[in-house]
Amino acid sequence: MSEATELRELYQQLLQRLERNEREFRRLGRAVWKVQEDERRRIARELHDGVGQNLTVLKHRLHELDAALAPRDDALRGTVAAALALCGDTLEDTRELSRMLRPPILDDLGLEAALRWLVRSQGQSSGAQVTLEIDALPPLDGELQTLLFRVTQEALTNAAKHAGAGEIQVVLHRRGASLLLEIFDNGRGCDPELALASGGNGLGGMRERLRLYGGQLQLRSAVGEGMRVSARVPLDYT
């Protein structure tokens, strides 16, 4: 065997080892992220079924107390009314926190329904006009649905809260053996390289999470000209 042949074989062996290590790294990364999502699901359920139910019972008891008060007991009636308002606000905050941690609709009805809920709730909370355009999607496993939902959630938060966008468009299409998710906004924009290097706004986390699934994140923006976030992820990521 010539020296050149030996070098080629060594190179191929090294390349195969690197590819195996890369696959193993991605598999472990996905496993860690799945544990995090499972924990989010558990905490969300605890908030909704535990804290939320207790607050609902407390609110019912306060209504009963209010109904039992004498008509002239204005001071105590005012105190109960304040307690009822505080209880109602806390109950709504708890439900919202539970939904944002892990919306039940994602597990119950799938990605499309979850994205429509996310777009609607983000528009209501931020005042931005948020639209969604989505193709008929092939069957997606839970991990891929969660990945696309989290990327969309992070991008919408960045656009509405950090970039001050008034108009945001979410588009999800199938492109051959991949899915292409794009989020356009008319916000303040930024330097994409600086934004990714800073590690802020969750952009770095989005990029690393997509890499675990063989996906890519691309940003196109300029100061004062909004941003386009493009996430491409293969349907077969194993």
From TrEMBL:
The keyword Transferase applies. This is histidine kinase. InterPro entries: HATPase_C_sf, HATPase_dom, His_kinase_dom, Sensor_HK_TwoCompSys, Sig_transdc_His_kin_sub3_dim/P. Residues 148-237 form the Histidine kinase domain. It is an enzyme of class 2 (transferase). Residues 1-31 form a coiled coil. Keywords: ATP-binding, Coiled coil, Kinase, Nucleotide-binding, Phosphoprotein, Transferase, Two-component regulatory system. The keyword Phosphoprotein applies. It catalyses: ATP + protein L-histidine = ADP + protein N-phospho-L-histidine. GO terms for molecular function: kinase activity. It comes from the Bacteria. Its EC number is 2.7.13.3.
